[in-house]
């Protein structure tokens, strides 16, 4: 008995004052926690096994963690070690177990099930994976040999997969034991993975609304998030992807909850969250998950129309609600149901009607949507709203540029800001349904000015603005960079490599210049330059606007202007923009 007490004291010393484990050596003991599957109300068995130890084990003490909001410890079953009731205790998500070979004649010397933990799955437990943790650090887990010296331990953790009975048919109402259909909640498997790989499965909770549509809800727990983050960190993926089965014909809303602690786990690993549906992909970057002070909630729901919008809508509107207000998210809406040429793709955008009552036409990039070769339009937003893919209307207004009374067009003459506003009013505002906001006037633009209406309407549409001193400077010449910025606000970029120019690095409009050049709307020069500070000429303006609006070249016509011969580089474009407009 004295020797047994000595071993107990040595084990206690191991737990209180652990010795450092030997580096780069095989463990003396390997502990494996098993897995189990059950439904709420079930009692399941999770075995805790030991591999053949390097030397017989005469005593051990360990602590295991478990989610006590999902699981309740119902008892311990003996295995190689006989655990008395007074040798274990479960409280606040931890279970502590201590064992000593009292006779010193029955140590654990071989492999097998050390003991089994009986867990009862709580009745209200959500579907998903409840992980059982055992940390191998000596402060939580210690095994001792006959001399009381601690043994090195390695651990393989386990889990309990909680699930409810699946529906009798895919997404169909569940049937009871009598075969009668009911509106009981369903639990549908949902995959979480990375770049083409699945990591684990959780469950989406589906209920039936009074109107017969489905309401889906899924929550991603912290333990599941930690497991996903660990694997994605190793693979270098930047998003954890939640693949959600959906059908907007029958689903009226999807709610995804990411608890605050789980959001911070992803953010600290530099990993964002993507919701991947057939109807949309919503991506929350890691930076937007960072420092979450409340659970993140995302709600997606289909809509039937966009209020007070008279443009051409080419996708079903989608409502996106999030409590991440002011933090950026990415939305990819699929381009399905019709084919778009590369040129037509530049006319696509997303109409966003925000919750605060404002609206905006978002432009973005045409990207691959799925593995079937479909495309989607990727845009960025930072507030909740209603989103739908829209496309500009065909240009049907005819000529939009005039010449001068002396039969000249003056193709090399610079374009002023007032002239640009007028051209944009005649072209863009007649084809693009742009939201209009109340714009303050400019101190140097009077109602009596010839371009007053054009300047006011173009400013209200957000295409051109004024200067910090409250002026518009209508007579100031426009640069090529300034036109690039205007055009970049309304065109989306089709697939393809971004062009490069020799003279735009570090320029304030570099992003816009590359954007419109990749869209094929505004091009550079043969020497590889763009000349961003070059003054925009009338010939350059009509070439850019004709490309933007898809106006075909008016070839084969007799010259209209005395200073634009049929050998002029912009002859066809000028003819198209000015046909029948000669004064």
What key attributes describe this structure?
583 residues, alpha+beta, Immunoglobulin-like, 3 domains, 16-stranded mixed β-sheet, eight-stranded mixed β-sheet, 29% strand, elongated
Sequence-ordered SSE layout with sheet pairings:
Layout: H1 2-16, E1 29-33, E2 35-38, E3 43-50, E4 59-65, E5 71-78, E6 88-91, E7 94-100, E8 112-121, E9 128-134, E10 141-144, E11 150-151, E12 153-156, E13 158-162, E14 186-193, E15 198-208, E16 214-219, H2 222-235, E17 239-243, E18 251-258, H3 260-268, E19 272-276, E20 281-284, H4 286-289, E21 296-302, E22 312-313, E23 318-322, E24 329-334, H5 342-345, E25 348-354, E26 359-362, E27 365-368, E28 375-381, E29 385-391, H6 417-431, H7 452-460, H8 480-488, H9 510-518, H10 538-549, H11 571-578
Parallel strand pairs: 1-12, 2-13, 16-18, 17-19
Antiparallel strand pairs: 1-3, 3-8, 4-7, 4-9, 4-10, 5-8, 6-7, 9-13, 10-11, 14-15, 14-17, 15-16, 18-21, 19-20, 20-24, 21-23, 22-29, 23-29, 24-28, 25-26, 25-29, 27-28
Total individual domains: 3
| Strand-residue proportion | 25-35%
- Provide mean pLDDT, rounded: 85
Helix content: 10-25%
Task: For the record, give the distance between the C-alpha atoms at the N and C termini, rounded to a whole number.
Answer: 118 Å
Low-confidence stretches: 1-23, 165-182
Give the overall silhouette.
elongated
Rounded Rg: 34 Å
Number of helices: 11
Instruction: Return the structural class.
Output: alpha+beta
Major sheet characteristics? 16 strands, mixed
Oligomer: single chain
Task: Tell me the number of strands.
Answer: 29
């Amino acid at each position: 008995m004295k020797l047994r007490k000595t071993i107990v004291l040595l084990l206690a010393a191991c737990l209180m004052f652990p010795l450092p484990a030997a580096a780069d050596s095989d463990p003396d003991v390997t502990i494996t926690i098993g897995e189990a599957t059950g439904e709420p109300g079930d009692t399941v068995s999770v075995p805790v096994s030991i591999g053949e130890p390097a030397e017989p084990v005469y005593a051990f003490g360990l602590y295991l963690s478990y989610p006590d909001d999902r699981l309740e410890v119902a008892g311990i079953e003996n295995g190689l070690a006989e655990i008395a009731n007074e040798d274990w205790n479960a409280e606040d998500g931890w279970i502590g177990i201590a064992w000593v070979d009292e006779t010193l004649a029955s140590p654990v010397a071989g492999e097998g099930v050390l003991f089994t933990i009986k867990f009862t799955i709580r009745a209200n437990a959500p579907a998903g994976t409840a992980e059982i943790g055992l940390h191998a650090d000596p402060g939580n887990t210690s095994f001792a040999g006959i001399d009381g010296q601690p043994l090195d331990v390695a651990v393989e953790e386990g889990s309990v997969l909680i699930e409810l009975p699946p529906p009798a048919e895919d997404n169909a109402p569940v049937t009871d034991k009598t075969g009668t259909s009911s509106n009981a909640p369903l639990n549908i498997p949902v995959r979480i993975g990375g770049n083409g790989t699945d990591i684990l499965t959780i469950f989406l909770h589906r209920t039936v609304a009074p109107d017969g549509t489905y309401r889906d809800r899924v929550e991603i727990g912290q333990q599941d998030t930690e497991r996903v983050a660990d694997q994605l960190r190793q693979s270098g993926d930047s998003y954890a992807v939640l693949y959600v089965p959906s059908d907007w014909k029958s689903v009226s809303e999807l709610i995804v909850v990411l608890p605050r602690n789980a959001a911070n786990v992803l953010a600290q690993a530099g990993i964002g969250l993507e919701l991947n549906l057939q109807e949309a992909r919503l991506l929350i970057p890691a930076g937007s998950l960072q420092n979450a002070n409340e659970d993140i909630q995302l709600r997606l729901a289909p809509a039937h129309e966009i209020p007070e919008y008279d443009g051409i809508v080419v996708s079903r509107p989608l409502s996106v609600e999030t409590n991440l207000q002011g933090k950026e998210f990415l939305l990819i809406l699929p381009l399905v149901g019709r084919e778009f040429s590369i040129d037509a793709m530049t006319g696509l955008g997303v109409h966003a009607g925000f919750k605060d009552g404002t609206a905006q036409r978002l432009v973005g990039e045409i990207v691959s949507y799925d593995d079937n070769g479909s495309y989607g339009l990727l845009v960025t937003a930072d507030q909740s709203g209603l989103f739908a893919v829209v496309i500009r209307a065909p240009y049907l207004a005819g000529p939009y540029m005039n010449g001068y009374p002396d039969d000249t067009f003056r193709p090399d003459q610079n374009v002023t800001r007032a002239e640009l506003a007028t051209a944009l009013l005649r072209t863009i505002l007649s084809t693009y349904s742009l939201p209009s906001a109340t714009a303050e006037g400019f101190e140097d633009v009077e109602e009596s000015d010839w371009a007053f209406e054009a300047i006011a309407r173009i400013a209200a549409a957000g295409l051109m603005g004024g200067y910090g001193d409250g002026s518009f400077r209508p007579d100031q010449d426009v640069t090529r960079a300034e036109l690039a910025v205007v055009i970049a606000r309304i065109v989306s970029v089709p697939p393809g490599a971004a062009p490069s120019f020799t003279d735009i690095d570090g320029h304030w409009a570099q992003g816009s210049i590359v954007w419109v050049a990749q869209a094929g709307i505004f091009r550079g020069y043969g020497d590889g330059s763009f000349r961003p500070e070059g003054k925009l000429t009338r010939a350059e303006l009509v070439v850019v606007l004709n490309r933007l609006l898809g106006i075909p070249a008016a070839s084969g016509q007799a010259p209209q202007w005395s200073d634009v011969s049929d050998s002029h580089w912009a002859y066809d474009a000028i003819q198209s923009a000015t046909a029948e407009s000669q004064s």
